[in-house]
Amino acid sequence: MIGWREKVAMGASALALAFGGAAGTASAGTVSAQGWNGHCYALSRTTTSFTGWCDGTGPQRYATKVYCTRGWYTATYSKWYGDRTGVYAACPSGQTRIDDDYAHNV
Question: Per-residue pLDDT tens for 27-43?
């Protein structure tokens, strides 16, 4: 079974391939994952953080992640699909958010 860290690493590799190595802005509301047919929405984006939520129903879980000037950082907690309170991920001090995304089924 693949853990969430491996999923994040695979997602980062896929993102790098899709954007030719340059990160763009994630399009919230269009993301879906295997075994889940909902959409994700942004609650807040700043120069250093991202908060978002995904609709649907549990027990599967989602988390947010941010791509900062020195790599990907994933939220330290996750929520069930459908929990609208959102998940927050932030860059370490001194780094800037370049992109953001969701980690699914974590």
Answer: 444 445 555 667 999 99
Structure tokens at 68: 């900062």
**Distances from the Cα of 41 to the Cαs of 30, 66, 76, 102, in angstroms?**
9, 15, 19, 10
Locus of tokens 């953080």: 49
pLDDT above 50 for 20: no
- For 21, the token pair is 């190595």
Inter-CA distances, 28 with 2, 6, 40, 71, 94, Å: 24, 22, 6, 20, 25
The three state secondary structure string of 29-97 is CCCCECCECCCEEEEEECCCEEEEEECCCCCCEEEEEEEECCEEEECCCCEECCCCCCEEEECCCCCCE
Cα gap 91→77, rounded to integer Å: 15
Is the confidence at residue 6, as pLDDT, over 60?
A: no
Looking up tokens 């120069």 gives 47
Q: Which residue has the higher pLDDT, 33 or 57?
A: 57
